[in-house]
Amino acid sequence: MRDSILQVRDIHKSFGALKASDGITLDLKPGEIHALIGPNGAGKSTLIKQIAGGLKPDSGSVTFEGHEITGLSTAQRARLGLGRTFQISALPMGYTVLENAVLGAVGQSGSVFRFFKPAMKDPVLLGRARDALQRVGLDGLEDTITAELSHGQRRQLEVAVALTLAPKAFLMDEPMAGMGAEGSKELTGFLRALKTQAPILLVEHDMDAVFALADRISVLVYGKIIATGSVDDIRTNKDVREAYLGEEDTA
Amino acid sequence: MMRERHLNMIILALLVLVPAYALWADEPFTITLATRAVIFALAGVGLNLALGQGGLVSFGHAAYFGMGGYAMGILASHAQSYTPIMESPFLIEGTNSMPVIWLVAIITSALLALLIGALSLRTSGVYFIMVTLAFGQMFYYFTISWPAYGGEDGLSIYVRNQFPGLNTLDPIQFYGICFVILCLVLFLVNRLNKSPFGLALMGAHQNEERAVTVGINVNRLRLVAFVISGAITGLAGALFADLNRFVSPTMFSWQISGEIMIFIILGGVARLFGPVVGAALFILLEHVLGGLSEYWFVYLGAILLFVVLFAKGGIIGQLSKKESGHEG
Predict the structure, then answer these.
(1) What is the DSSP letter of A34?
(2) SS3 category, B93
(3) Which of A47, A212, B157, B165 is the most buried (most CB within 10 A)?
(4) CA-based angle A36:A72:A109, to the nearest 5?
(5) CB atoms within 10 A of CB B301
């Protein structure tokens, strides 16, 4: 197995008496989808923030492609190639689909401090943006205002914006949330194709999707990873069934 | 989209035709009013960059307006009295050359905006409004208590400053200077709005989290916007001082900050020509209503309330189709 792209080593984070991250170690290997599941309040969001930036662990480290990124800002991590999508679409709603994708390209290319040449006429930025939109299948909707997109289309646009960063790893927070069965199925197929470009750390509630997609699954309960393994390992793991899957039989 | 552009052309045409008519009808006072409107518009275009495009509600832009005003006042008063501003460690003399004064006004107000922005951009929301207001008031009280340049009474400059090849004391020629500067700044701000910088600035205003996750350093982005914004308002301050041939601490007062904000809200937040229309309407109301009653601000307040409650996007927003102001 090749080296991990993203490594989380023994991260601790407490809020008062609450141990939100209690010695979490986790890695993401090339070409895989690594799903992170856990009941509400297990500390998934806290962990994501420590990986993507915005929250500094009390101890432990996060390494991305061999660089320690624990002390870097969210923007710096993004420029290194950490592509993130949000649970609730975080997109400038007044922008067109193309403008949103170009914004991603602007951030990636570091051309933020160019004041005179129109961004929407820059062939490099446009090329990158259009490529990304085409990959997620939004190329017909370039001029649509983002606020007018359906829920599923916004999700696709989130992924497209992340793609403009030419990411080395994706960090996806519940991409299936609020999607219909049809959309969920479509996105599952898309993510399966996407992982060959860059591995995906997937936080997801939709168990069907997780079991269908994930190469590995880690289960987070009360700030601790109680199990990591293949779909079958997790399905049959006694601790996991007790702590998380409980009475609801998802298989 | 097209209609807003047409509307902008009509506004520019009016800014040419009204003073031209006043010249023909020999009404120099109207030209002076138009000059006031154009200068206020310029101050508003400056604030609009921070407030409209950037979402940074600065209630202290009088600081830059006043800074520009005092840059002019200090330089011109020394030129007028033939005394140097300082002799050691090196000699700095006053000047009555407009281009030099403008340059000094732009640089000093940009530096001031850099300082104030670096401190106040750590806060957001109501705190940002209060911190910027506090900085503006600091300068107001400082100039009141600083006797070297007139203190509370301000500074009179007896002759308008010079611009090569023009007679600046002729109202229409001075109007021409101000109008050309406004057009130039509008052109540059329009380019800026469409540039990667503008896209990022307005994107961060709509969704900060997104801007950060695509790798944009939002703090630096906003600070740069704030500095450019302050510099433009500072340039307007220098022109305003030259129009009145007088500077006083009033230029630093929070009322000025509020008025500049009113231009933007009346005309249309984040619209390129919003502050232009707003400033023109403000001057018109001040002249017409001010002639009727001393309490004309009551009527202005009512109009402002109406615009805020019922006319989203201000006058430009009502007269043109599109809601969002970033395309033109």
Answers:
(1) E
(2) coil
(3) A47
(4) 95
(5) 12
d(CA B227, CA B221): 10
- What integer pLDDT is reported at residue B325 of this predicted model? 44
Angle at alpha carbon of residue B44, lines to B318 and B164, rounded to 5°? 125
Cα–Cα distances in angstroms (integers) from residue B235 to residues B143, B248, B293, in the given order: 19, 16, 32
Q: What share of chain A is helix, strand, coil (3-state, %, to 5)?
A: 40, 25, 35
SS3 B282: helix
> Would you say the C-alpha torsion A43, A47, A49, A54 has a positive or negative sign?
positive
Alpha helices, DSSP H only, in A81-206? 97-109, 123-136, 151-164, 181-194
Q: Which residues of chain A neighbour B54 with C-beta distances below 8 Å?
A: none
Coil, strand or helix at B214:
coil
Token pair for residue A160?
Answer: 């497209």
ipTM greater than 0.85: yes
Q: Strand A200-203 and strand A33-37: pairing?
A: parallel
CA–CA distance, A231 with A174 (Å, rounded to integer): 18
User: pLDDT tens digit string along B80-132?
Assistant: 888 888 887 888 888 999 999 999 999 999 999 999 999 999 998 899 999 99
Encoded tokens for B106: 């732009």
Question: A245: pLDDT confidence band, cut at 50, 70 and 90?
Answer: low
Closest CA to B73 of B256, B230, B237: B237
- CA B45 to CA B231: how far, in whole Å? 11
* Residue in chain A lying closest to B199 (CA): A103
Report yes or no: B221 at the A interface, CB cutoff 8 Å.
yes
Q: Supply angle C-alpha B254, B282, B13, rounded to 5.
A: 130
End-to-end alpha-carbon separation of chain A, Å?
29
Using an 8 Å Cβ cutoff, are B206 and B324 in contact? no
CB contact (8 A) between residue B192 and residue A93: no
pTM of the model: 0.92
Residue found by looking up tokens 């380019």 in the block = B191
Q: How many CB atoms lie within 10 A of CB B256?
A: 25
Contact across the interface for B214 and A52, Cβ inside 8 Å: no
Side chain identity, residue B299? Y
The amino acid occupying position B78 is H
Place of tokens 């899957």: A245
Q: CA–CA separation, B223 vs A180, rounded Å?
A: 42
DSSP string, A40-92: TTSSHHHHHHHHHSSS--SEEEEEETTEE-TTS-HHHHHHHTEEEE-SS----
Q: What is the pLDDT of residue B294?
A: 81
Least confident of A199-203, B47-51, B309-313: B309-313
Q: Is A113 on the interface with B (CB under 8 A)?
A: yes
The residues, any chain, with a CB within 8 Å of residue B267's CB and separated by 6 or more, are B44, B273, B274, B275, B276, B277, B278, B279, B281, B314, B315, B316
Task: State the DSSP string of B100-132.
Answer: HHHHHHHHHHHHHHHHHHHHHTTS-THHHHHHH
